[in-house]
Amino acid sequence: MPISLELANDNAFYHNNFMTGGYPQLVEYDPAYPNVGNVFSLPLPVGGNYWSTSSCSDANHDGICDSSVLFQGGVDELPWSARSGWVGPGVAGPDQFIECPATQQVNVTLNGSGSSDPNAFLWTWSDGTNTYTATGPAPTITLPFGGPTMSPFR
User: Fold this and answer.
1) What is the pTM of this model?
2) How does the average pLDDT of the chain come out, rounded?
């Protein structure tokens, strides 16, 4: 469903996920009463919106599409390449060093409660051979002696 703006001036539309059934998003306006001053992105790190109907290339992997999204009535100069791309990585807190007997395992509770969206938190780690995952803001996981370095991802 398109956005319809009539006599709408000086609005900022950013950090939205514009989702459609496969047709372009349009901002419709009456040429007799043009909308002026509306912006669809702000300078980085804020950026613009995610547009599901836009084919987006992100060659430098910075999270921003390499091309603007143009539509009737506006332009998003800094569209995000992924849905909710403006939501940054979780905040995992300070490093933890856990001692473990040489031939045993240890349970560790991870704490991502400082994340901007703790309900969507995804932890990944590798032992050099396998990659493992856990979800949620505070999962308890079992690590072997000499366990891996952990990295939180959203």
Assistant:
1) 0.56
2) 77
